[in-house]
Design brief:
With 286 residues, this protein is of the alpha+beta class. It has three domains: 32-86, no CATH class; 97-155; 162-280, L,D-transpeptidase catalytic domain-like (Beta Barrel), CATH 2.40.440.10. 16% of the residues lie in helices and 22% in strands. It has helices at 97-107, 121-133, 145-156, 261-270, and strands at residues 61-64, 81-84, 169-174, 179-184, 187-194, 207-210, 213-220, 225-234, 237-241, 257-259, 276-280. The two termini are 12 Å apart.
Length: 286
């Protein structure tokens, strides 16, 4: 049970991005090509790729900047080459690359991705956009364990499982996948996003509830912290902006439904006293 009748949440500290800090940057080095033959006035060019980057078949952009030739005998040709490969500089291929590409393709809305397990500039941009949307740190485009976990949970969420009523607004919480979304008149109003609910000993109860208290900033006496965008729906449990890094899934709340700042604000803008909250499933380990 929640230690306080009105409020429950998690206030432990966090070291940001501990799951995904392995982002690496390739080092581009000029190969030891000192000379190249001039053929019909043409110029030889060197294709360079970041160290450790996977080979790609996507187009390579090459820019040659200078050619020097003297007398009737071509003595030297010097080329400086800039190469943009399919894998964007500083956006390494993560161990979950192909899985994340598949999830993002299914979810849509993050830009074009190719499900082949090889990082490209487009893949990198899509993964970064996804990471920024869901508060994953650092948002460096690396398909690490946190990105894989979040994308997988969202892709596995079925909005129909909420069985929302055909009229009015229903806030849905999926404890199994740790996701939440909003339905209105039987259709999805707010697409699934991530949440973090009650940990072992403080399980968020499944059931159908109603929002019964709303304060834009609620003070917690026992924990001495503000809870932004508070919307209570059962006992001392409710929606509110997380007070810690949301993706520390080894921890949990004291029964509340923790939200990212963007989602907490949006839920606050939609919510009204008396609106339905449906909580389904069960969080693993609780």
């Amino acid at each position: 049970m929640c230690p306080h009748e009105e409020l429950c949440f998690d206030v432990r500290t966090h070291l940001p991005g501990e799951d995904d800090l392995a982002a690496r940057q390739g080092t581009v080095r000029l190969a030891g090509a000192a000379t190249a033959a001039l053929v019909g006035g043409g110029l030889g060019a060197f294709a360079l790729t970041p160290a450790g980057a996977a080979a790609r078949t996507s187009p390579v952009t090459t820019v040659a900047t200078s050619t020097v030739a003297t007398s009737t005998v071509a003595t030297s040709t010097v080329a400086t080459t800039t190469v943009v490969t399919g894998a964007a500089a500083g956006c390494s291929t993560g161990r979950y690359q192909k899985a994340v590409e598949g999830y993002l393709k299914k979810l849509g809305g993050f830009g074009p991705v190719t499900v082949d397990g090889r990082q490209s500039a487009a893949d990198c941009a899509a993964i970064k956009k996804f990471q920024k949307r869901y508060g994953i740190e650092p948002a460096a485009g690396l398909a690490g364990p946190t990105t894989n976990n979040v994308a997988g949970r969202l892709a596995a969420t079925r909005t129909s499982a909420c069985k929302a009523k055909k009229s009015g607004t229903t806030f849905c919480v999926d404890l199994t996948h740790q996701t939440t979304w909003v339905m209105r008149n039987g259709a999805v109003l707010v697409k699934p996003t991530v949440t973090r609910t009650g940990m072992k000993g403080h399980r968020t109860p499944a059931g159908t509830w109603r929002i019964n208290k709303r304060t834009k900033k609620e003070w917690s006496d026992p924990y001495e912290v503000w809870l932004p965008y508070w919307q209570r729906f059962v006992g001392g449990r409710g929606f509110h902006q997380t007070t810690t890094y949301l993706h520390d899934m080894w921890r949990g709340s004291h029964g509340c439904v923790n939200l990212l700042p963007e989602d907490a604000r949006r839920y606050w803008g939609i919510g009204r006293i008396g609106m339905t909250v449906k909580v389904i499933g069960r969080r693993s380990g609780t």
